[in-house]
Design a protein that fits this description.
333 residues, mainly alpha, globular
Length: 333
């Protein structure tokens, strides 16, 4: 193994381990164990749901490649995407670091470099668009509902909730320019991505993206479908947690709650693991639909955090195994 490649792998591994250690340190393991005992083997259903959601996202990403470049197996894309997404969770550069990792890991797969970058950007755009679409549809359905979906659901609270979420979305979008751009430019990833743009010609990447959106109707339709399924299946996690706690919820209401929580997580993307941010999002969004019980909020937050820790460990393990196999990672010569 060449020195440059060895050093990069060591730096990546150390950064991930440190971030993961911080996440573990802020987690109350006693409460985690108590919450898992509360629902027992049903916790595996939560893991299965998130696995299926991640799988749909990987399939959606496959369709973001140019037709001739769809040579990678879904299994490989699932592993690479999962490693990148878990890295996004535990490092301050957030999605920038995760996307850079995906690009790095795809360089040795026999795919044109412009196709790699274009697919990552297209997937990110389509993920964002489908997320907003799911949020707006669920908001419209819940808001227009004549009957409450919970017996104790305060329908009158929908309007301020909708206003708050829309304002939060605007703040996140504008805030990303304020604090994420300086963070990005001050990181080593900025130089990395800048070099990629110079080396791989930004015009070719834009051309590839334009070609996809204008000419690949099948790819666009399929990636949209699978990304929609990714968000919907992922939202069912909250539905089943509440069901396990004896609270029956409406699907669209739960989707609205989950999409609102995603906005909070986006606002705190620069915080490794969104420590504290996701928990606050859980509390506020559950409160909007009438669930104000402290124990329920704590249990929901702990179970979701536990699931997150499981998949972070899985991603870290996958990277360790994947990086040791010859030919999986590019030679940085």
């Amino acid at each position: 193994m060449k020195p440059g490649k060895r050093i990069l792998k060591i730096v990546i591994t150390i950064a991930i381990l440190i971030s993961f250690a911080v996440l573990i340190k802020t987690t109350d393991l006693h409460k985690v164990i108590s919450s898992i005992r509360l629902i027992g083997f049903r916790f595996t259903l939560l893991l299965l749901l998130t696995f299926v959601a991640y799988l749909f996202a990987a399939i959606g990403w496959k369709y973001c490649f140019r037709k001739e470049a769809r040579i990678l197996a879904v299994r490989d894309l699932f592993i690479i995407r999962h490693i990148g997404e878990m890295l996004s969770l535990v490092n301050p550069a957030s999605v920038i670091g995760g996307e850079a990792m995906k690009i790095y890991m795809l360089q040795n797969k026999g795919i044109e470099k412009t196709d790699i970058v274009a697919s990552v950007l297209i997937a990110r755009v389509m993920m964002a668009l489908t997320q907003v679409a799911v949020f707006l549809v669920s908001l419209a359905v819940v808001y227009s509902s004549n009957t409450p979906l919970f017996d104790f659901f305060p329908t009158a609270g929908l309007q301020p909730a909708a206003v708050f979420i829309v304002l939060t979305m605007l703040i996140v979008l504008s805030g990303n320019r304020i604090y994420m751009q300086p963070l990005y430019k001050n990181s080593g990833l900025y130089s990395f991505m800048k070099n990629l743009v110079r080396k791989w010609e930004i015009k070719q990447i834009i051309k590839a993206m334009n070609h996809f959106f204008r000419n690949d109707s099948k790819g666009l339709a399929c990636c949209t479908l699978f990304f929609f399924m990714h968000w919907i299946i992922g939202s069912l996690e909250i539905y089943f947690i509440l069901l396990f706690l004896g609270i029956k919820a409406g699907i669209f209401q739960i989707i609205l709650v989950d999409m609102g929580i995603v906005l909070f997580k986006a606002a705190g993307a620069f915080i490794p693991g969104q420590i504290g941010v996701e928990e606050i999002g859980n509390k506020i969004m559950l409160g909007f639909i009438g669930i104000t019980d402290y124990e329920i909020w704590i249990t929901v937050s702990i179970l979701r955090r536990t699931r997150q820790l499981f998949w972070i460990v899985t991603g870290l393990t996958a990277y360790m195994i994947y990086s040791k196999k010859p030919g999986n990672l590019p030679d940085l010569s």
